[in-house]
Amino acid sequence: MFVFDSTHFLIFLSSAILLAIAPGPGMLYVLARTMGGGRREGLLSVLGTFFGGLVHVFAAAAGISIILAKSATAFATVKYLGAGYLCFLGIRMMLDARKDEGISLAALPRVRSPLLQGIMTEMLNPKTALFFLSFIPQFVNRGHGHVFLQFALLGTLSVTLNTSADIVVTLLAGPLGQRIRGSARFRRRQRTLTGAVMIGLGSYLAFGESK
Q1: DSSP 3-state of 134
Q2: Residue 103 backbone dihedrals phi, psi, to 5 degrees
Q3: Quick one: what percent of the chain has pLDDT higher than 70?
Q4: How far apart are CA 52 and CA 46, in angstroms?
Q5: How would you class 173 by CB atoms within 10 Å of its CB: exposed for 0-12, middle for 13-18, buried for 19 or more?
Q6: Whole-angstrom Cα distance, residue 26 to residue 196?
Q7: pTM surpassing 0.85?
């Protein structure tokens, strides 16, 4: 039975929590659903994005485990490429924060099944797949074995944290929702901070551990 390295797990947990509470497209989507269709539609959308996220996690875990379990070189390559991609995402998040316009309620069509749309919205988002493929492998210890299980547990925890933050936003869609959706400055600061942390995390994982 493997045990996660305490230092790596703490870095993972801290990063995952910060990413979960940062007002990104997923949170704004759920918030817009809640404010447009009520709390029930918002919670169903949250549940949908949760299941959609799990699809990405287990699909990525299956592919990564097959490749990484057989090749130390492939494992190192994926980690370094992933660390570079995290830095890229952080830079882009900081740049995009300056032109953030949120999500318009009018732009979202009314649907009969917000649960199904939430699932499909998340499943068909290639950025979600790329994020998991770059973020999770940084904390998978090939030497401990059980690569698939490690990836699945960390990915599920990350999705659960995202969902928990979305649920809080949905339940407090009044004052909190108005602040997140209506304050561009608030979103800019949160996304800039998150982007900076992602750059720092990617740099640390790429260079700090190679010494």
Answers
A1: helix
A2: -125, 130
A3: 80
A4: 10
A5: buried
A6: 19
A7: no
